[in-house]
Amino acid sequence: MSASVGSAGEILWVFGIVTWYVIRYPFERRAKRVRVVDSRRSPVDMIGLAAALLGQAFVPGFYVLTGKPKVADHPVHVWAIALGAILFFCGLWVFRRTHKELGKNWSITLQIRDKHQLVVTGPYALVRHPMYSSFLLLALGQAFLLSNWVAGLSGLAGFLVLFFLRVGKEEQMMLETFGSSYGDYMKMTKRIIPCLY
Ligand code: SAH
Questions:
Q1: How far apart are CA 132 and CA 100, in angstroms?
Q2: Per-residue confidence of the chain (197 residues) as pLDDT tens digits?
Q3: What SS3 class is residue 39?
Q4: Which domain holds residue 27?
Q5: Ligand 1 binding pocket, CB closer than 6 Å
Q6: Is 49 part of any domain?
Q7: Ligand 1 atom, smallest distance to 192 CA
Q8: How far is CA 86 from CA 32, 42, 174, in A?
Q9: Count of domains in the chain?
Q10: Is 28 helix (H, G, I), strand (E, B) or coil?
Q11: Which residues pair with 38 in a beta bridge?
Q12: Mutation pick for ligand 1 pocket among 38, 163, 170 (CB with most ligand atoms within 8 Å)
């Protein structure tokens, strides 16, 4: 019973991560066609991206494929898998909404694109980094879906590295580009958790 519930968690995670890429792929393709006018891509930002990729894709993917590291397995609970599925699904939904809202202004790294517009609508009316909120939801979902301490928590670790290496620099870039419009927007919104942080 618990083995099959555990496998269900892993299957849901695989399904979720494939959906994640299906959502992202068209934006990646479209972004290549819009000229970058200011790039702040740096080794530090690349480290953040690598950490997120490692923690949210490679480590859990390796676990799902090989079952390793087995010593880090912990008991499976139906409630945890159900909660993980809800969190992961909500994360995917927010992820999709942010891509739709950002449109041509999206970049994988810190970049300002030609005719870049400040987006303050949709999920951006609630918090100023809703895509990072979605990463947090996905990381929490992963922690509950995979019954292994390493594969479960690596997503949260990767997210935290990316987020804290990037968020200050991103806000600085947005302030330099959009001036008081972004300053005012910062006063009205929290970073990733509405009303809290
Ligand atoms: N931090 C945002 C966006 C992540 S994508 C979020 O979590 O939702 C990163 C790129 O989005 C940055 O390079 C920046 O150019 C762009 N960006 C960030 N916030 C934006 C906003 N409010 N409006 C338009 N572009 C934004």
A1: 15
A2: 566 777 999 999 999 999 999 999 999 998 889 999 999 999 999 999 999 999 999 999 999 999 999 999 999 999 999 999 999 999 999 999 999 999 999 999 999 999 999 999 999 999 999 999 999 999 999 999 999 999 999 999 999 999 999 999 999 999 999 999 999 999 999 999 999 99
A3: strand
A4: 2-188
A5: 98, 102, 105-107, 110-112, 118-119, 124, 128-132, 170, 174
A6: yes
A7: 7
A8: 33, 35, 32
A9: 1
A10: helix
A11: 112
A12: 170
Question: How far out from the chain centre does Cα 103 lie?
Answer: 17
**CATH number, position 179:** 1.20.120.1630
pTM: 0.96
Q: Which atom of ligand 1 is nearest to the CA of 111?
A: 13
Which residue has the least CA distance to atom 6 on ligand 1? Answer: 129
